[in-house]
Every structure is written in structure tokens, then in C-alpha cells.
């Protein structure tokens, strides 16, 4: 089945630790996105990538990093510089700009 | 002013009711509009695109008003299973998508 897979479903981060969230898609989509959602809030864009080996910062990129070495994969690293990382992280992909986005089922990150 | 604004609700309606949500957007050049549904602690799922001429999918009708810069979603004959948060999505000046914070709907028996 085609879709977007995020892993892990739940993740715990220790103080000063970097953690990486995985996002893989087999939809052959060019564009991929990372969002953060806090309880009762909307989605905020962290990073997005429209093509392999290229990505742009979203509204809240500080404390996060990404790579796009393969079309299928867009991992997000939450660095120790992100002081408030507890949130629901959603990865999405689309055929391109202005096309509807399809989401993975998310990763919940908490601080230990 | 936020790029995309929605009334957070909650909207509490009885089964069988008709309910409508609006979503205003600030970028007059926006070309792409969508409604998503998000259940509690789940990912958003695409409900429908919104076309200039308006479009319908079963009990759901979406409309676009470019002059007043808003989109709407009408749900007829509400079901218990329609209870969710409804997010509107509009493309921004940077051509990325902007999500509204969502309108929460609860359909009661």
C-alpha cells in the first residue's frame, strides 16, 4: 500500500540529547514537510523540501535540522537547542506546491 | 493578522443538524484551498479540495468566496462520526500551505 510511515510512534528525549524522527514515503511525491502541533493548537511548519537535496526553513526551524538525500526520506532531527520539544510531530508529502498534502500518523515526543 | 483564521468553536450540534464553518484568509493571491479533518490525537486527513465554483461530496459542500476571502464547509445531516476538528488550508505567499488552528465539532445523539 502507498503511504507515509513515521517512526517511532512515541519518543522520549533526555536533556542535551539529539533525537531523529523518521519519515518515509512511497507515493513518489516530490515535496515533503515537517510540522509541529502543540495541544489544542494548529500545525506549524518546521521545514519543507520540494526536491531531493534541497530544503527550506519554515516558521519554527530553530532547534531542528533536516536532510533530503533520497526522494523517499525526510528525517527530522530535534537538537538539544530546541528547549521545548514536547509536541506531536507530523510529516507530510505532496506531489508539489499547492497540491493536497498527505500525512503520516505522527510521532509524539516527550522530555524525560 | 493570521494568514488563516477559523472560529475554534466548539460547535455542539444534534444528530441530523446542518452545520457550517467559515475560514478567512489574508493572501488575496491564494489559489489552493482544502478542508482537512483531524480526530483527537490523530493525523489530519484530507476531506476535500475547494474549487472556485464550489463543490459537493455527499453530505459535505465546500465553497470559496474570493471577494471576501473566505472558504466555507457545510455539513448536512450530521452524524456522530462527524465529530472532529476541521482544519482549513490555504497556500501562502511563499507557496507553502498554511493551516488554520481548526474548528471543533461535536455531534450529539
Percent of residues in β-strands of chain A:
over 45%
What low-confidence regions of chain B span 5 or more consecutive residues with pLDDT below 50? none
Q: What is the helix content of chain A?
A: under 10%
Order of SSEs of chain A, N→C? EEEEEEEEEEE
How many β-strand runs of chain A? 11
Rg of chain A, please? 13 Å
**Main sheet summary of chain B:** 6 strands, mixed
Distance between the termini of chain B: 37 Å
> Shape of chain A from CA axes?
globular
Name the biggest interface: A-B, 20 and 20 residues
Shape of chain B: globular
Q: Mind explaining what this structure looks like?
A:
With 112 residues, chain A is mainly β. Chain A is built from no helices and eleven strands. Chain A has strands at 4-7, 10-13, 19-25, 31-37, 43-51, 54-57, 64-66, 76-78, 87-94, 102-103, 107-111. In chain A, the strands form two sheets. In chain A, strands 2, 4, 5, 6, 9, 10 and 11 form a seven-stranded mixed sheet that branches. Chain A has a four-stranded antiparallel sheet with strand order 1-3-8-7, with no helix packed on it. In chain A, β9 (87-94) and β10 (102-103) form a beta hairpin. The radius of gyration of chain A is 13 Å and the shape is globular. Chain A starts with a strand and ends with a strand. The model of chain A has no long low-confidence stretch (mean pLDDT 93). Chain B has 109 residues and is an all-beta fold. In chain B, the strands form two sheets. In chain B, strands 2, 4, 5, 9, 10 and 11 form a six-stranded mixed sheet that branches. Chain B has a five-stranded antiparallel sheet with strand order 1-3-8-7-6, with no helix packed on it. In chain B, a hairpin with a 5-residue loop joins β9 (84-91) and β10 (97-99). Chain B has no helices and eleven strands. Chain B is globular and about 40 Å long. Chain B has strands at residues 4-6, 11-14, 19-25, 33-38, 44-49, 55-57, 60-65, 70-75, 84-91, 97-99, 103-108. The model of chain B has no long low-confidence stretch (mean pLDDT 94). The A-B interface holds A 33, 35, 41-43, 45, 48, 58, 88, 90, 97-106 and B 31-32, 34, 41-46, 49, 87, 89, 91, 95-97, 99-102.
